[in-house]
Amino acid sequence: MSQRTHSNSPKSGRRLVALALGLGLASAALGTAVPAAAQPAAPATTAVAGYAHYAGSAQESAANKAFFDAVLQSVAKRQAAQPDLQSVTVYYSTAQAPSFRSQISSAASIWNSSVSNVKLQATSGSADFAYYEGNDSRGSYASTNGHGSGYIFLDYAQNRQYDSIRVTAHETGHVLGLPDHYSGPCSELMSGGGPGTSCTNRYPNAAERSRVNQLWANGLAQAVAKLAATR
């Protein structure tokens, strides 16, 4: 994998972006509620070869958090409307990434078997976030437009160069709240392209699993409470 870069938000002219590589998505049983989340805007792409090596930055960290917060708020609205729901489900769409449906499904299964406080489920209706595919010199990344919509962009060339399921699962890790850590070892999913193209680990390690479970237990509860306080 190549390390990440940033891009501009498709509608605002600047994209809050965290270019990442890897594996990811969340846990076990699926909820029955259909989300009423905003549809993400389609990303702008450019057909360029090669990747810029990116060591991480405050901008990237802010982009990661913005994307997670957007998904968290979308799920919180559903939870607040249906407080009796027993499981937390994040819904995603693959309609704009048909070439990667197998990798996305595998990444979702990996996360769904790795964590217990959140689940990922594909939907053909309204989704909390969406996957897109195409060519972009910046590689793959997770992004939010800052208005409650988010998406993951999967770059063709990067997914040929690196393990495609690791790339997908890594990007999905941002949906679940994990930041990049390029200096980490191959055993750390969020190390992305740091360990090089030979790294094919597709699974989050114990610390990453624990962090996701914590975020979706405490973070979601806080988001629901904050939403209720504004009503």
UniProtKB/TrEMBL annotation:
The family database entries (InterPro entries) matched by this protein are listed as:
MetalloPept_cat_dom_sf (IPR024079), Peptidase_M7 (IPR000013), TAT_signal (IPR006311)
Top EC class of this enzyme: hydrolase
Query: Record's superkingdom?
Result: Bacteria
- Catalyzed reactions per annotation: Hydrolyzes proteins with a preference for Tyr or Phe in the P1' position. Has no action on amino-acid p-nitroanilides
Per the record, a Pfam family? Peptidase_M7
Q: Which PROSITE patterns match?
A: TAT
Gene3D superfamilies annotated for this entry? Collagenase (Catalytic Domain)
Q: Does the keyword Hydrolase apply?
A: yes
Where does this protein reside within or beyond the cell? Secreted
List the signal peptide residues: 1-38
Q: Which UniProt keywords apply?
A: Disulfide bond, Hydrolase, Metal-binding, Metalloprotease, Protease, Secreted, Signal, Zinc
Q: Does the keyword Cytoplasm apply?
A: no
Main localization of the protein?
secreted
Q: What is its EC number?
A: 3.4.24.77
Stated family: Belongs to the peptidase M7 family.
Q: What is this protein called?
A: Extracellular small neutral protease
What organism is recorded for this protein? Streptomyces similanensis
